[in-house]
Design goal:
The protein is of the alpha+beta class and about 190 residues long. The chain has helices at about 5-15, 20-30, 85-90, 110-120, 125-150, 150-160, 160-165, 170-175, 180-190; strands at about 30-35, 40, 50-55, 60-65, 70-75, 80, 95-100, 105-110. It has a domain at about 5-125: Jelly Rolls, CATH 2.60.120.10. About 50% of the residues lie in helices and about 20% in strands. α6 (about 150-160) packs across α9.
Length: about 190
């Protein structure tokens, strides 16, 4: 088994246990693709038809308001799903764009192929349920992060993760914690002193 398949197997095993033969069928249903930094894998207005798992690299999800301002809504690192859940689950157009921040490697499966796997391997349905439960919890944590924490608390939380501070450009970090770049600079100076 190659490194990409091993990483995908590790991700799947976090959410469900399927037999060796079933796991092979699941792995074979995924395709692996390299994504260059700055590439867009989903544009606003498109339907998210792929459920992808980030095996290597980093992505951001963002939206653009009517004034043309981008807001980074999600940051995605290794062993995380790369998906716009509402668009994928409802098979409707997305309001979000997903862009690679680094050269990355994805394991992806189409909506239809995933539904077929759920029908073919009932034990694999646990994967989908547990993953969607986790995405729901992460979404609620994100809401709490933005509504209940001060900008300084949000920034200090980011400091605890090298992924955020070393791999994400500051302009995207500022947007992610809902502050202007100049406010982020002030927060950084304040924490350093």
């Amino acid at each position: 088994m190659d490194q990409a398949s091993i990483a995908l197997t590790s991700f799947i095993n976090k959410y469900c246990k399927v037999s060796g033969e079933e796991l092979q069928a699941v792995i074979q249903a995924f395709t692996f693709s390299a994504v260059n930094a700055q590439s867009v894998i989903l544009r606003s207005g498109q339907t998210c038809n792929l459920f992808s798992i980030n095996l290597q690299g980093a992505f951001r999800s963002y939206t653009v308001d009517k004034g043309g301002n981008e807001t980074t809504t999600w940051l995605i690192f290794e062993q995380m799903p790369v998906i716009e859940p509402t668009s994928f689950l409802l098979q409707r157009r997305s309001d979000y764009t997903i862009q690679a921040l680094e050269d990355s490697l994805l394991a992806s499966i189409t909506y239809d192929a995933l539904q077929q796997l759920y029908d073919k391997i009932p034990a694999f349905q646990v994967f989908g349920r547990k993953l969607m439960e986790q995405l729901l919890l992460l979404s609620m944590c994100r809401v709490d992060f933005l509504l209940l924490e001060t900008p300084q608390e949000r920034y200090e939380r980011l400091l605890k993760s090298t992924n955020f501070m070393q791999r994400v450009p500051l302009k995207y970090l500022a947007s992610y914690i809902d502050v202007t770049p100049s406010t982020l600079s002030r927060l950084r100076r304040k924490v350093k002193s």
